[in-house]
Design a protein that fits this description.
By secondary structure, the chain is an alpha+beta fold. The chain has 2 helices and 2 strands.
């Protein structure tokens, strides 16, 4: 879920370090809060010059 954006970044970086593969995150977001969490995630990635791919999927059930 979108509110777990920080945990997803840490986990992606950890598994990238363990496997040698590029980090990637699929963030499941609520349409109402998508921009807020995606903005935070992208800022953390940009400010730390991280090479992480991000995809979003909208949770239609909320």
């Amino acid at each position: 879920m979108g509110k777990k954006w920080a945990e997803s970044l840490g986990q992606a970086l950890f598994y990238s370090a363990m496997t040698g593969k590029k980090a990637g995150i699929v963030l499941i977001v609520n349409p109402r809060t998508k921009d807020r969490f995606l903005k935070r995630l992208n800022k953390a990635i940009a400010d730390n010059n991280l090479d992480v791919d991000v995809w979003t999927i909208t949770n239609q059930r909320t």
